Amino acid sequence: MTLSFKASMVGPSRVGKTTLITAILAETETMLAGSGISLAMGEETELRVRRNRRNLRRAVEGREFEASSLGGTQSMALYDVSLQAVGDSSVQIPFSILDYPGGWLDPDTRPQSTAAKESWAACEAHITESLMLLVPVEAAVLMEAVTPAQRRAAVDLLGFEDVQAMARKWAQARNQPEHREEPAVLVLAPLKCEKYFDDNGGQGRESARLRELVREKYRETVAVVNAEAKNRAIRVVYAPIDTYGCVDLIEGEWIQTVDVYGDPALDFRGHYRFREIPPVVRPKAAGTVMQELCRCVVAGQDVEERRRAAAAVAVYQQALERKVEPKGFWGAVDYYVSGEALANRNTRLDSRQTIVATAQRQQQLKAVLERIAKEPADQRVEEW
Amino acid sequence: MSSIREQLDEVLRRRGEYRPVVEEEIDRWTRIGQLVATLGEAAAPDLAGEPDPAQPVLGAPDTAEMAAAVEDCLAVLATVRARVNRGTVNIGVSGRARNGKSTVLQALSGLDDRQIPSGRGQPVTAVRSRIYHSATDRGARLRMHTAASFLAEVIAPYHAELGLGRAPQSLEEFARHGYGHVADGLGPQDKPRLAPVLARLQEAQEAVESYRPYLTGETRTVDLTDIRQWVAYPEPSAQAARPYLAVRDAAITCAFPLEDLTALGLVDMPGLGELVPRAEEHHLDGLRNDIDFVIVVKRPTDTNSMWAQEDARALQLIGSVCTTADVRDFALVLVNTGGCLPENIAALQDDLDKRLNNASGGRGYWVVAADGADRDAVRDQVLRPVLEHLALALPRMDRAAIEDAVRVCEEHGERIAEQAAAWAQRLRAAAVPTSTEQSIARAEELRAEVAASVQGWVDTLKGRAADDFEDTEFYERITEVHQEVRAWVLDGFGQGADAWRQRALNRFRVDRASLPFASAELNRIRVEMARRFSAVDSLLSRRRDEYWAGLAAALGPRLTLLVEDTAGPAQHVLSELAAVLRDAPEPCPELAETLGFALDVRLDYRTRALPRVRRALEVLLPEPDDPAHDSGPATLLSVPRTDEGAGLLLERITQLARQAAYDAQGVLAQEPGTTAQVLFAYGEQFEDAFVRAESSEAEFRRLVAGFQDRLWPGDRTGPQAVSARVHRLRHLVAELRRMTGDARAQRPETERRTR
User: Fold this and answer.
1) Count of C-beta atoms within a 10 Å radius of residue B261
2) Is the model more confident about A334 or about B198?
């Protein structure tokens, strides 16, 4: 498995996860502007993001666009992004965000899926090592469900069962002894919140209702997480995100359909318009995800430094053994933040000047990381 | 004579003293009779025929027996009253026709044939007169019939006697009545008796015009020289006038030929065996109520010299009414010897000695023989001895009559009192709640009944206010209105897309700008949409009406009995009920106010939904309220002034309008739940205030106290009926006991006066 800082994401497909990644990247790029640090994507991730940006452009041309109907995630996807020193790809902080079907958690249904059988082991390892569990929520499904039937449908559409099962799995892993000292954050992220806020060009006044609904609907999930992680603390962050920042919901359409059991059900389709012409994409609060990841890394570094001090009085051999067998989060912290990568790099360099320059970039990256981590969160964002 | 007069005057004076006591006693027994009748009605089983739960408690007291006892008392008291009310000592003269009764009356009174007709052949006395002695007055007072009394008292008895059925109800009917065929219908046995009766009736019919003018009901004063036509039958003639038929009774006043005479009256008793209806009944009535002494005249002619069966019957009738005195104190047999053969006189006297006086044993009947036409003989041998006798006997007879009445009343009174006491004991044993207890119990029952019912209704409201309750009808109506608005939007706001674009283009050219037109359109659309969404008002009104209907039903059928028109709308029923409670004799202001509160529910679109709908429509404002903070739709509305630009504008305004309509329907879609919660809150508040408020218990008691009869209209059966009847009977029986007890309490006084 690639050494990286890991996060897992669970939510219905078509909720706009790629758009969320796109928004996260856009806001991160804004945060990195002028810092000498840039954002790099893995090949697959870049393809997805590029496709998403193309669709957005098309929608702008089409003057109205529709969010796809929601449904459970059917396949696994891995989003790889890294903070990278400009001109030196070896100086980087790589992040790896996994999106996988919640249904795979059920051992009864898992064997029915070939993809699940093939990928479950890697998937499980990723979940176990994830610092963050990101739960994207289609805000409109929560907010536009006004009749009892629609509210009942929203429960299915938002995949509460899958989310809760995933949260339990992740919290259990975080509670394992080897991960207890690692950071852990659960991010509840309502998406496409433009209609409900008035702080990003909109006229919405329903932010309080959205917060209450998310709190109410995910109360049990949060409780499960806290219950499973009884030996440690887990940050719960509420981050309502404008993924576009330039659209408004025109109409929410509740469509009669049948569920997998053949029972009558409702699907939701949102119809959006652009607030302005030409539309300017202005995501909001999406940077919270990267900010939280950076905080995890910085917090991990602090812990690691305390560990080093403790190690100095410990058996030298033990310390040596632990250091020579770096793995998981601590390995990544050591490797990318504490200088091991630089040391390895230096052995391959023949120019002292280059060594100095690279060391400077490493310090620069670390400073950026710390700056991002310490930047005040968006005002919408709350820690629960 | 002076001594006799004084004694008789004393008798009359003492009688006058008894009058108020007797009247009082009659009045009391009349009231006892009414009370007994009321008791009988109150204790009688329900005539509806349904099982009467009160009957076992009440028993079946024999009020019929009590009523009969009261009748007895009143009858005996009536006789006493007739006796003490007489202002004169009355002597009746009785006897069968043709025995010289009128002759004796003439002799006693000093009148002659012109005033007291007598004659040979046919009977001549048509109207029985009373003749009163007066040393100064001389004349006659005739009390005339009215047409009604004539028909009822004269004609109706003829009809009854002849079996002719219903008597005529008017003189015209009487005059037209066909009596011609009646004689044909008389059987051979009845004919001898009834044919003369019929003849009298026909005479009366034929002569109706002769007396019709006198049927005035007035009292006429007639000189004694003219009295005969009013009291005697005319000479037989086809066209004879019969004014005597209009005379109800006649009172003649004249000076009797006896010195130093007291207040004395002579009564011509109807003769037994006369061919007039109810002869015996009238005779008995006269014996009982009109006279203090009777002279039976018997004239021994060749065919009448024996004491016949008819004569015995006459004495028997006298004996029947003479229950408190010896009949020999009351009657005298006058053997009218005038014009009779001595052997006939001797035969009669012999017969009287043997068959009358010996047969009775002991003291014999008083028999006097005198010539009835011989005024001196009548005065000296008849009148004077009779008056001497009455001077001694009347005080005794009066006392006996009064004591008899007292005894009868006492016995019946005690018997009634015993029955009433037994009945009272039985009623006391029936433990039934008092009216106050009943009223309180009913108030509690009603309150509990209303509380349970209202709680059920509030539970229904609560169910509708629950998160998972789906007011499908409401949502469908909102969807319907939204779809109508949406269709209007998509149809170029009711004008068609092409027309709208053309209009837009025209305005672009006029204004050389797109914004003025766009702004105007947004304003128009906003106003129109707010108006169109008011269509949901009908459903809000329906929910409010359903709320009132539910409340009216929850208050239960009993409370709505206070409302005259329950068929109208529930709002009207509740308003009227509130008014009744507020304006009641015992007002229930808190209950009325609570009903007023329930009637003040406001669910209309303008009050409830419009403010939030307006908020949803703000997206259609051309400019934001705060341009510094919000750019508004300005960039969307600025389009090229071309046909394509007009299409673009239509598309963008349509999007804004769709969004506004969608948001408005979202606002309204919350309304069913909010409305249900509002109604639930109103319902809970109503329930608390109506049933559980501090004043509720007291006001329910006032309500029941004020409207018990209306709240329980058919209150004739069940425990309440038992209670009501028992209480009523207790009251009546107590009153009866008090009145019969009074009878005993008054007895010493009565007896004292009697003695």
Assistant:
1) 19
2) B198
